[in-house]
Amino acid sequence: MSDLRDLYQEVILDHNRGPRNYGVLEGATREAQGYNPLCGDKCTVYVRLTGERIDEIRFTGSGCAISRASASLMTEAVKGRTVTDAMATFDRFQAMITAPLEREAGDESLGRLSVLGGVREFPVRIKCASLPWHTLKAALANTGEPVRTE
Fold it and tell me: 65-78 vs 123-141: helix axis angle to the nearest 10?
């Protein structure tokens, strides 16, 4: 097994077993819910903004290891950043996990998030990895609409 595949599995398992920033965020200024009917993943993202900065972010939910790990990694990646930076990270993450298999999977600018590039080898799992991100996007846009990945 390749080193990247080993790292992918290690990071997914670590963040699934001990998700970072897990739990309800009291005093959240933004919130959104997401649902992946194919896999049954559910995710709620809570954000506390100060101006345009994400001061605090947490999530709750249930689902597969990839969805929980993606949410955990996402919260670490965007906490303390501006909404604009978070949305740019969303765009780079989406481009990475939906890139054709012929292209390189990782994106060094994404740091640890790049290990999730491996989900593109399993097309049904792309929605699992992207659910928390689309839920974050809805929370930041403050639409009040639930997110569905169908």
Answer: 40
* pLDDT at 21 (0 to 100): 97
If you search the block for the tokens 């593109």, which residue do you land on?
120
For the whole model, what pTM was predicted? 0.91
- Looking at the DSSP assignment, which residues form a beta bridge with residue 46? 31, 58
Rounded Cα gap, residues 120 and 42, in angstroms: 20
Please write the tens of the pLDDT for every residue from 19-54: 999 999 999 999 999 999 888 999 999 999 999 999
Looking only at the bridges linking them, the beta strands covering 53-62 and 41-50 are: antiparallel
**Three-state DSSP state, 45:** strand
Q: Residue type at 111?
A: G
What is the distance between the terminal CA atoms of the chain, rounded to a whole angstrom?
32
Residue-wise pLDDT tens digits, 71-103:
999 999 999 999 999 999 999 999 999 988 877
Cβ within 8 Å of residue 91, ≥6 positions away: none
Question: Domains of the chain (ranges plus CATH)?
Answer: 3-142 (3.90.1010.10)
Degrees (nearest 5) of the Cα angle 108, 71, 51?
85
